[in-house]
């Protein structure tokens, strides 16, 4: 159970000393917040069983994406999914977190709202330093703290994200600047284009 709840480096340390306090400074990680749009409307139109079934299907798919791209799922709270790349100096993984974000946007459209329209998501990304640690004993939770987390969450909830725009970075670029001669406003990831700065991105077909 703990192996599914906590990152490998945490379970390894707990196995060696169950009484130790797990707390680290992570110098550079990439954080993703994914928010289901119009969630209050969805809740109002579904029975408890229908709502839980829908969320289980969506979050399970996103769990598969986190495994696919090698990033760490952090938690789900209500209509929000959080993931992080680059824990324990694992290269920050900005491209992995962007690829996951784009896949989340695409995969969400495979799930239907009660009125038959596809589920839509808003995603906020930010990279930077965080504090991490395990809190609680009865139900221990691995958590991240700091401005990087807050910036990613705020980007996901930005009013600048309209119905036709699904992905926003905070003001700190996620990916490094393009090489000389490349387009200065976007980077290509697996053939899909996304913005590097504080702008929203249109998914394919929108």
Indicate the mean pLDDT: 77
Number of β-strand runs: 9
How many alpha or pi helices?
Answer: 6
SS content category: alpha+beta
Radius of gyration, whole Å: 17 Å
Low-pLDDT regions? 177-206
Percent of residues in β-strands: 25-35%
Quote the distance from N terminus to C terminus: 40 Å
Would you list the SSEs in sequence order as H and E? HHEHHEEHEEHEEEE
How much helix, percentage-wise, in residues?
25-40%
Estimate the global geometry from the Cα principal axes.
Answer: globular
Largest sheet: 7 strands, mixed
Offer a concise description of the structure.
With 206 residues, the chain is of the alpha+beta class.
Topology:
Blueprint: H1 2-5, H2 8-16, E1 23-36, H3 39-45, H4 48-69, E2 72-77, E3 80-85, H5 94-108, E4 121-135, E5 141-145, H6 147-156, E6 167-169, E7 186-189, E8 192-195, E9 200-201
Parallel strand pairs: 4-6
Antiparallel strand pairs: 1-3, 1-4, 2-3, 4-5, 6-9, 7-8
Helix pairs in contact: 4-5
